[in-house]
């Protein structure tokens, strides 16, 4: 009988176990490294962000009376997947989802905060025409979305101040709205309650001196339209 016959299976089992452990650790390390942003990622993110900003600036620089002229028509056609037409103002905007998608793509990098803020400030097509539900929804997907992603971000103070101004004006008119159309039926009031609840949850994670003022105004609005 070979004196090593019993030793070999044990040896191979130990070898395979060690090899598997090494493989798992290597994959985990590779994944960790892949998730760690580097200078190359930051440079790429800034370059893509710059392209969107340049597109936005280009759209703003074209006089509306020249939209139908060349080479503007070719420019609009070439970028139709990236832009949207704002009919009330008869002008083009960069699609906000491009900024939000870019922020998600490079989340974790310092520039992602600025990308998200640009997304929150980017104009949206259409008009709410004073309808409160619509106005709250737009605020939720812009300022609210920024704060939900960056409660302590570089622009969080500016976002809170904008919310403070928005909600103060709504709350002051809650009992007798003059500048906006309030919710009327049960479903509209439920929608307002849902949106206000989301704002409350978002603001709970934000540290800012005016946070409590905004939350107080949100409660006033909620009470008026419950």
Strand content: under 5%
Number of strands: 2
- Residue ranges: pLDDT <50 for 5 or more in a row? 1-34
Number of domains: 2
Description:
Helix 4 (96-105) packs antiparallel against helix 5 and helix 8 (186-203) packs antiparallel against helix 9 (211-224). A hairpin with a 4-residue loop joins strand 1 and strand 2. A two-stranded antiparallel ribbon has the order 1-2. It starts with 6 loop residues before the first helix and ends with a helix. The chain is flat. The relative contact order is 0.08. The chain is 65% helix and 4% strand. The protein has two domains: 37-126, no CATH class; 128-226, no CATH class. The longest helix has 29 residues, at 7-35. It has helices at residues 7-35, 39-61, 72-78, 96-105, 110-121, 132-149, 156-172, 186-203, 211-224, and strands spanning 83-86, 91-94. It is mostly helical.
Observed structural traits:
single chain; mainly alpha; 2 domains; two-stranded antiparallel ribbon; disordered N terminus
What are the SSEs and their pairings?
Blueprint: H1 7-35, H2 39-61, H3 72-78, E1 83-86, E2 91-94, H4 96-105, H5 110-121, H6 132-149, H7 156-172, H8 186-203, H9 211-224
Antiparallel strand pairs: 1-2
Helix pairs in contact: 2-5, 4-5, 5-6, 6-7, 6-8, 7-9, 8-9
Compact description:
This protein is mainly alpha-helical and about 230 residues long.
């Amino acid at each position: 009988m070979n004196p090593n016959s019993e030793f070999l299976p044990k040896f191979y089992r130990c070898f395979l176990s060690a090899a598997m452990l090494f493989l798992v650790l290597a994959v985990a390390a590779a994944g960790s490294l892949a998730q760690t942003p580097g200078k190359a990622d930051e440079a790429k993110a800034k370059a893509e962000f710059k392209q969107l900003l340049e597109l936005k600036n280009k759209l703003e620089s074209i006089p509306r009376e020249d939209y139908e002229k060349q080479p503007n028509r070719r420019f609009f056609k070439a970028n139709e997947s990236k832009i949207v037409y704002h009919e009330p103002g008869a002008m083009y905007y960069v699609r906000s989802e491009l900024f939000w998608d870019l922020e998600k793509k490079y989340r974790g990098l310092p520039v992602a905060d600025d990308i998200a803020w640009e997304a929150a400030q980017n104009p949206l097509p259409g008009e709410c025409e004073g309808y409160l539900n619509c106005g709250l929804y737009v605020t939720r997907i812009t300022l609210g979305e920024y704060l939900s992603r960056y409660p302590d971000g570089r622009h969080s103070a500016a976002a809170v101040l904008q919310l403070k101004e928005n909600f103060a004006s709504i709350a002051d008119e809650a009992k007798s709205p003059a500048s906006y159309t309030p919710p009327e039926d049960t479903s509209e009031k439920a929608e307002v309650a849902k949106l206000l609840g989301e704002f409350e949850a978002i603001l709970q994670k934000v540290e800012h001196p005016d946070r409590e003022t905004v939350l107080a105004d949100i409660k006033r609005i909620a009470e008026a339209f419950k």
